[in-house]
């Protein structure tokens, strides 16, 4: 047994001797190479490099402009040259420190930074505490350790993302802020830039929102209530969570006693004060038209390369195409929830977006980006979505190029249950009926699918693709097929794109470039963006544009848009929808569209769910009611310019047509039309023969 024990012990001893020998050799090598000095040197170089980098970053951060940026406001000017409102960026109504009650100042200092008036913008204890937390939480920054100056640096100059590098940047920026500004200025900026929940920035607006008074009039209890919200504006919201707000308010009052800002009797009195909410805050004079202003900011960033921070904080004047009447009336229509589908069973709200353009200039007159509560620069369904346009594509991809290639408004189109090409593409009419032959204007007004596909097949898909691309809608190779006639675009389009395309019909064939901004002037008066010159291109002849309008008047007079026509006004345009997959449990649509216009305005409206699935789709048609309400509200504020043409159906009736061979009082024009129709009929017969042959070889 002793021998076995010795055999087990020997490997352990050998291992110990090996490790001991290795450690001795390492110590000798370490001393010989002086690695301690090298490690210290590397650490110092690294520290120096990081310090140099962040010092330079702090010095070039425009810290000296912080206070001025809180005071300056970027104003938005409407199409009439009048102030429409102002843009904001985490800023409320600016007030100087003497206009802020000491009760707020003391509550904030007692809670957030007790050494505020004596520290150099940072706290060694706070940094140590944050470092310990960083180690304990395995590299995760969990807040804490920041002085008021550091919080100001984070709120105004950095992102809210909790990272180690951001913490370092925050420290160096705080040191620079402390060097440039007095403590009074730092506290002023902090209180004017702090977020107090419910979309409220700054202590003055918060005082109005929660207590109905100026910041200079706040009591100790009210000051502590606002200071409580700085920790968590939602959890300590005195409107929605008064118990939480009162509990933390009382804790802060105790902290104020500990820091000798309040006596025990003052604290006792303050704790007895009832938490009464009085809201006298109004933002109507600031971010007045939120969806339009959001879009203006996006355009400055995307088209003109101006940063969000600059455009919001540097006192620009932004001249726009905004029509306050159109914008207000469009928004009023969207405020009528009865016009829209009810929320789904899980509470999901059907979404919608609408936009109005001036067809002569391309200027955006109005926009509503979504339903529900607005949040700053939220997703805009009028400018950002990409959805299949359904039959609203037909005028662009089929009927306009057909007119350009010899067809007439009354040309006979085939409307039969048929398939096309080798792939046996089989479109169907929504109502399941087929007329055999139908004049073009009737096919468009009734949005019959088969005649549109047949016509695109006759003129050639390439002509439809070329037409769409002229209208500013690119068509990838995968979409270059007959489904294009019915809106089969995988990428889809936005209401903004559709409205821009339709400006060509309302503007005698000239498509104008959609835009929000006409000019930007900086704080010195220099013009830095000038878009006052109209940008347009001719995509149709005036005659074709007029003929298209005459056909699209029929959409609202006797076609699919009849119920969407505003009473007392003539409107031209097109309706559209996209079908559900056959696998869905019920009938309905994914998307509903209307693009309508007069010579004065083009309006494109979309309705649908953000994501369509078996629980989220439209079970009835709502788009007509929405569009009708919009146009009923808006059109009285336009110039009410009349169309230069009549409804195509009326023209056909005056010419004694029922299906459209075409006669007129002018014998020469009558002869010209007769010859044209004969040639066109012959062309159609040839195309029918060619289509049959082509089907043998694939489409």
UniProtKB/TrEMBL annotation:
Family annotation (Pfam families):
Transgly (PF00912), Transpeptidase (PF00905)
Q: Please name the InterPro entries in this protein's record.
A: Beta-lactam/transpept-like (IPR012338), Glyco_trans_51 (IPR001264), Glycosyltr_51/Transpeptidase (IPR050396), Lysozyme-like_dom_sf (IPR023346), PBP_transglycosylase (IPR036950), PCN-bd_Tpept (IPR001460)
Q: Which SUPFAM superfamilies match?
A: beta-lactamase/transpeptidase-like, Lysozyme-like
One GO MF term: penicillin binding
From which organism does this entry originate? Lapidilactobacillus concavus DSM 17758
* A GO CC annotation given for this chain: outer membrane-bounded periplasmic space
Q: What's the name of the protein? A: Penicillin-binding, 1A family protein
* Penicillin-binding protein transpeptidase domain segment(s): 355-624
The UniProt catalytic activity note for this protein reads: [GlcNAc-(1->4)-Mur2Ac(oyl-L-Ala-gamma-D-Glu-L-Lys-D-Ala-D-Ala)](n)-di-trans,octa-cis-undecaprenyl diphosphate + beta-D-GlcNAc-(1->4)-Mur2Ac(oyl-L-Ala-gamma-D-Glu-L-Lys-D-Ala-D-Ala)-di-trans,octa-cis-undecaprenyl diphosphate = [GlcNAc-(1->4)-Mur2Ac(oyl-L-Ala-gamma-D-Glu-L-Lys-D-Ala-D-Ala)](n+1)-di-trans,octa-cis-undecaprenyl diphosphate + di-trans,octa-cis-undecaprenyl diphosphate + H(+); Preferential cleavage: (Ac)2-L-Lys-D-Ala-|-D-Ala. Also transpeptidation of peptidyl-alanyl moieties that are N-acyl substituents of D-alanine
Q: Show the PANTHER family listed in the entry.
A: BINDING PROTEIN TRANSPEPTIDASE, PUTATIVE-RELATED (PTHR32282), PENICILLIN-BINDING PROTEIN 2A (PTHR32282:SF32)
The similarity comment for this entry is: In the C-terminal section; belongs to the transpeptidase family.
């Amino acid at each position: 047994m002793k021998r076995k024990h010795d055999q087990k012990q020997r490997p352990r001893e050998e291992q110990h001797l090996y490790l001991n020998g290795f450690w001795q050799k390492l110590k000798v090598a370490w001393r010989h190479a002086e690695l301690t000095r090298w490690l210290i040197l590397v650490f110092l170089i690294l520290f120096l490099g990081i310090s140099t980098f962040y010092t330079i970053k702090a010095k070039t951060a425009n810290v000296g402009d912080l206070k001025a940026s809180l005071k300056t406001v970027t104003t938005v000017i409407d199409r009439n040259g009048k102030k429409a409102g102002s843009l904001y960026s985490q800023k409320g109504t600016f007030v100087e420190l003497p206009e802020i009650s000491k009760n707020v100042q003391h509550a904030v200092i007692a809670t957030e930074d007790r050494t505020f008036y004596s520290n150099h913008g940072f706290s060694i204890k706070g940094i140590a505490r944050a470092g310990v937390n960083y180690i304990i939480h395995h590299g995760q920054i969990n807040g804490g350790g920041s002085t008021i100056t550091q919080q100001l640096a984070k709120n105004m100059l950095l992102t809210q993302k909790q990272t180690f590098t951001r913490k370092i940047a925050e420290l160096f920026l705080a040191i620079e802020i402390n060097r440039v500004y007095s403590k009074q200025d730092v506290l002023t900026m902090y209180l004017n830039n702090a977020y107090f929940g419910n979309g409220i920035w700054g202590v003055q607006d918060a005082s109005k929102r929660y207590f109905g008074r100026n910041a200079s009039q706040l009591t100790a209890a009210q000051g502590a209530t606002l200071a409580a919200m700085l920790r968590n504006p939602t959890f300590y919201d005195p409107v929605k969570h008064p118990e939480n707000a009162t509990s933390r308010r009382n804790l802060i009052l105790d902290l104020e006693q500990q820091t000798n800002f309040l006596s025990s009797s003052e604290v006792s009195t303050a704790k007895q004060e009832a938490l009464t909410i009085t809201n006298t805050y109004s933002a109507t004079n600031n971010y007045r038209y939120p969806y339009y202003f959001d879009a203006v900011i996006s355009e400055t960033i995307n088209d003109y390369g101006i940063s969000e921070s600059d455009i919001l904080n540097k006192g620009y004047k932004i001249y726009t195409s905004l029509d306050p009447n159109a914008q207000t009336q469009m928004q009023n229509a969207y405020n009528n929830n009865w016009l829209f589908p009810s929320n789904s069973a899980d509470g999901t709200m059907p979404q919608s977006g609408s936009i109005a353009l001036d067809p002569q200039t391309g200027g955006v007159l109005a926009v509503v980006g979504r339903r529900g509560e607005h949040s700053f620069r939220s997703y805009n369904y009028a400018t950002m979505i990409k959805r299949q346009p359904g039959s609203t594509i037909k005028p662009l991809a089929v009927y306009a190029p057909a007119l350009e290639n010899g067809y007439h408004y009354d040309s006979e189109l085939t409307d039969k249950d048929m398939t096309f090409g080798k792939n046996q593409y089989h479109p169907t009419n929504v109502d399941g009926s087929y007329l055999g032959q139908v004049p073009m204007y009737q096919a468009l007004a009734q949005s019959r699918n088969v005649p549109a596909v047949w016509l695109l097949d006759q003129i050639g898909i390439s002509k439809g693709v070329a037409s769409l691309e002229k209208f500013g809608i690119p068509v990838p190779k995968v979409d270059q097929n007959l489904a294009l006639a019915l809106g089969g675009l995988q990428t889809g389009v936005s209401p903004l794109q559709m409205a821009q395309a339709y400006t060509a019909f309302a503007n005698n064939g000239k498509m104008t470039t959609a835009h929000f901004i006409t000019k930007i002037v900086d704080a010195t008066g220099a013009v830095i963006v000038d878009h006052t010159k109209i940008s347009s291109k001719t995509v149709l002849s005036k005659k074709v544009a007029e003929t298209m309008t005459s056909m699209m008047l029929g959409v609202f007079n006797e076609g699919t848009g009849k119920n969407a026509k505003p009473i007392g006004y003539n409107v031209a345009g097109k309706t559209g929808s996209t079908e559900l997959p056959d696998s869905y449990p019920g009938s309905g649509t994914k998307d509903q569209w209307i693009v309508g216009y007069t010579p004065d305005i083009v309006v494109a409206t979309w309705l649908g769910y953000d994501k369509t699935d078996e629980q989220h789709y439209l079970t009835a048609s709502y788009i007509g009611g929405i569009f009708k309400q919009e146009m009923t509200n808006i059109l009285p504020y336009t110039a009410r310019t009349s169309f230069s043409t009549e409804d195509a159906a009326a023209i056909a009736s005056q010419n004694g047509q029922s299906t459209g061979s075409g006669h007129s009082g002018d014998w020469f024009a009558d002869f010209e039309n007769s010859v044209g129709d004969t040639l066109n009929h012959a062309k159609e017969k040839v195309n029918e023969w060619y289509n049959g042959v082509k089907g043998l070889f694939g489409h």
